[in-house]
Specification:
- By secondary structure, the protein is of the alpha/beta class.
- Helices cover about 30% and strands about 20% of the residues.
- It is built from nine helices and eleven strands.
- The protein has an eight-stranded parallel beta barrel with strand order 1-2-4-5-7-9-10-11, surrounded by five helices.
- α6 packs parallel to α7.
């Protein structure tokens, strides 16, 4: 995977719906054995030399392909939404810059997830918290790759490793797709064997769906209702054929054009659809985006993303806080409707 590792140098940025003001900062990850952190592009991520490097936890990572590591620990709810609130850690284990999932070694990351889950449970005891890991399983790239699709699929070993982390910890898993110039159907099919597990779900990211043919990161991409319907139908089929409980589909959004013709999205009882507000910025801007792009164009359930670093870039001049402020669970729960999917990056 030496050639793949070099991609990280070629495409320097933070991944995943990284802006709430229309400035998309795309990113990459490497699926090499070595963990490397991408150098950020201007104003895309705070430079932090002290950020810990994610390393293998040899006690459990020695053979993530063993079937017994994929057995879910604990009780899996028959129906997640709306009876539970999902709390997810986002990222990729090969990058400390893509999010909290890869920023720390496995044990420390999961300890922090447990701690965060306890805070949310205390803030709203009426909704049981279901912990989750949200893996960028297919990452948009700044270079075309051999097939010209500007995306990198994580290896079976990497995907199974994160699935095993979740399974052993009682956390469900989301596999996120950044298609680049690829076809969504083909990327979902690549992940289908994992989605047959009852605790593995799907995320799709319009930011990196480059229908115009532009290189990821140069413009914000888009999905139409027709694309989202294809994902719903795909998950519904997987659930039906494998006698699974309802799947959850998370669709990221932080601009108007990222999702078009929302009113044509067709719901299915086998799939719970979450439109997740995942732009970063001060609380007032995030709340405005939630109201403008999520609440005003309702689909089914709502989500809200919090950035441990990027949300602390600026002071919120419309609040009482004098320093940059990461929203507390109580502040997010004051939104109407209350988000049922919470993601930290």
């Amino acid at each position: 995977m030496v050639a793949v590792a070099s991609i990280l140098i070629q495409f320097n940025a933070l991944t995943g719906c990284s802006s709430s003001n229309g400035d998309s900062k795309a990113s990459t990850t490497t699926d090499s054995a070595a963990t490397q952190a991408a150098a950020p592009v201007a104003d895309s991520v705070r430079k932090e030399s002290s950020a810990p490097t994610a390393v293998a936890d040899t006690a459990t990572d020695a053979d993530p392909l063993k079937a017994d590591t994929l057995k879910f620990s604990g009780t899996l709810p028959d129906t997640l939404l709306p009876n539970h609130r999902i709390l997810a850690y986002y990222g990729n284990p090969h990058s400390t810059r893509m999010g909290i999932l890869g920023e720390y070694p496995r044990k420390e990351m999961l300890r922090r997830l447990d701690q965060e889950a306890a805070r949310w449970q205390k803030a709203d005891p009426s909704k049981p918290i279901q912990k989750a890991l949200h893996l960028v399983a297919i990452s948009a790239q700044g270079s075309p790759q051999k097939d010209g699709k500007y995306r990198l699929r994580m290896s079976d070993k990497t995907i199974r490793k994160v699935i095993s982390w979740g399974a052993q910890h009682g956390a469900i898993v989301f596999l996120d797709i950044q298609v680049g110039l690829a076809d969504l159907k083909g990327e979902m099919e690549y992940l289908e064997k994992y989605l047959k597990l009852p605790y593995v779900h799907l995320g799709i990211d319009p930011e990196f769906s480059m229908k115009s043919g532009a290189k990821p990161g140069t413009k914000i991409g888009t999905y139409d209702a027709a694309d989202i319907n294809k994902a719903i139908q795909f998950l519904s089929r997987v659930a039906k054929e494998n006698n699974l409980p309802p799947k959850v589909l998370v669709v990221h959004r932080f601009t108007q054009r990222m999702v078009t013709n929302y009113q044509n999205i067709k719901l299915d009882p086998r799939v719970a659809v979450v439109i997740d507000m995942d732009g970063w910025g001060p609380p007032s801007l995030k709340i405005d985006s939630y109201r403008d792009y999520i609440v005003k164009e309702p689909v089914q359930y709502t989500g809200f993303k919090l950035f441990y670093k990027n949300d602390l870039k600026k002071v919120d001049k419309r609040s009482k806080h004098k320093v940059p402020h990461l929203m507390e669970p109580e502040e997010v729960l004051a939104l109407d409707p209350k988000p049922l999917y919470i993601q930290y990056q």
